[in-house]
Every structure is written in structure tokens, then in C-alpha cells.
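Re: the 184-residue chain
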Amino acid sequence: MKYDKADIERRMTGAVESLKSDLSGLRTGRANTALLDPVVVEVYGSMMPLNQVATVSAPEPRMLSVQVWDKANVSAVEKGISKANLGLNPMSDGQNVRLPMPDLNEERRKELAKLAGNYAEKAKIAIRNVRRDANEALKEDEKKKEISEDDRKRLEDEVQKMTDKYVADTEKAAESKEKEILSQ
């Protein structure tokens, strides 16, 4: 295993991007199309992601609209949204399914904020695991006499700086989401 700075940055960036994706799915009371990303619908005898049978949009701050492409799939889309357990109540209107965003109560807000913190912790653990792998690779390279002890220490400092940067990005994303959730 060889030390590869670009690979380390790519993996750390991936952890932060994954966190941001998870956070975008948390409901804040405002309509967000990412909320429906995990929804799967049974159509044509198989399970398909919602975005492959309909267009999702947010025409108003507290309303999602799902434009179903095939009118025969409207009830399947409603059923899929209900099964996803998102706390949304689908209302169909021809080929459109409207989803008004219910208000979040204080208890639910706190649960969502806590969940955001859990997502952030998982991302930090992933980043630290990348750091551990990088440091092990550096020690291995030093053992094989491919780099000197000074180089290893210098590169370990570099890895630690990258780790600190990505952990800070993670905390910033989570704090921002928690603030958004709790300030509704």
C-alpha cells in the first residue's frame, strides 16, 4: 500500500459529500425535492426509484409536487410515498401528486437535529479511518525504506491537516443543518 494524497483527499471529500447528501434528506419543514430520493415505487411489475417514473419539484416553500409521467402509475406513486414513512400525506390531482409539508413539532425538531449530529459523527469516523489508513501506509513506506522518518512525519502532519479540514467541514455542515431544523 503506497501513500497517495489524491486518494486520501478523494475519500475524505466523499465522506463530507455523503454527509451533505444525508443531511439534505432531513426534513426541515421547507419543501426539498431530496426528501423523496429514497422513495421507491412498484410499477410495471418491478420496484423503481420515484425519479424514474415522475418529476419532483417544489413549486411552493411548503409543498412538493410529483408530476407522474404515466397516469396509470399515480396510485402506485401515492402508495410508494406513503410506504416511505416520511410523514407526508399525498393528495392526487390528475397526474399530479401534491405533498403539503406538515409543521414540525418541537420534539420532532430535536430528533432531527440529533439525527443530523449522528450523521456528522459517522462522517467524522469515516474521515478518521482514512487518516488511519494513510498513516499505516506511511509507516509501511518507511519500513520499506521508500521514505525517510522525516518524510513520514512531515506527511503525517499533512494528513492530520487534511483530517482537521474535513472534520471542520463536517461540523460546519451539521451545525448549519441543526440550526435550520431548530429555527423553523
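Residues 37 and 51 are 7 Å apart (CA to CA).
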